[in-house]
Amino acid sequence: MKNIRNRSAARLGMIGAMGIFGSIGLFVRVIGLPSAEIALYRAILALILLEGILLLRLLRRTPQNRASTPLFKRLGHPLLWLSGAAMGFNWILLFEAYRYTTVSTATLCYYFAPILVTVLSPILFRERIGVHGIICFVLSTAGVVLLTGAVRVSEKDLHGIVLSLGAACLYAAVVLINKGLSMRQNREFTTDDPIRRTVVQFLAAALVLMPYVMLTGGVHLTEMSELGWAALLCVGFLHTGAAYVVYFAALRGIPGQEAAVLSYIDPLVAVLLSVFVLGETITAVQMLGGILILGASAVNEILSVKQEKET
After folding, report:
1. Total domain count for the chain?
2. Using an 8 Å Cβ cutoff, are 14 and 262 in contact?
3. Band of pLDDT at residue 5, cut at 50, 70 and 90
């Protein structure tokens, strides 16, 4: 009975985290700051929350255990810092995409990232790519074509689509770097604690984005409205810090195959909010393209998890 309750709680946590992730475009739209600034403040606010959680953990330990953690292990592997930098610029491109095209179109294009990971993993990690991986790549690519080339999109929309695909490439890079670090299992340089890893990544993102923001326009916090401030705090503390904690906790309580399915609540929520809250339109052809991208990505992840279990 206890296991059932724990699994149900983990499932609810995953659903909640994915729902929060899916609503970020709605909040970004009303902040009223340049995309780079939003990405910087997102990293800083989430970093504050996660560092607070780690500090509470540390205070619960004995003095001997606090001192036993090597500094290098706490700082993380250099590749982890690189993935954090990629994450920061990934946010910039995605937030900028929201300004040029609809939230639904940007989100659907962004979900091309899992397919990129599947295609590049055999090259980087000598993994075998099955027939299902090739088929899913073809279907997902066809979905992108339907979202762009097969329909008449304005130059502005096309700009947003290119930005969201660029964000997908950077997100795929983040996933591949973390996958490589996990495969190395080098305890001296990295850690299995997902929250600690995320803290390092957010810190790297903030350190990279800070000079970038200063060189490309500076800060504009004094120009924000009360609604903008509320939305920014939500993006930092709720959509990033809190949602990541819940997400990582939920991953430990449910099977990978179920997590892969539930992760697609994120784009579903984004599309629904785009249409029914923001009043953005999506054509039948674009919806078909989105279904191809998400469907191919979901099937690919489910079959990949199943294949890993069998091996």
Report:
1. 1
2. yes
3. low
User: Is 65 a member of any domain?
Assistant: no
Q: Is residue 199 part of a domain?
A: yes
Check whether 189 has a pLDDT greater than 60.
no
Encode pLDDT of 28-69 as tens digits: 999 999 999 999 999 999 999 998 988 887 787 655 555 444
- For 297, the domain range is 2-59+71-310
Task: Examine the pLDDT at 197 and tell me if it is beyond 60.
Answer: yes
How much is the pTM? 0.86
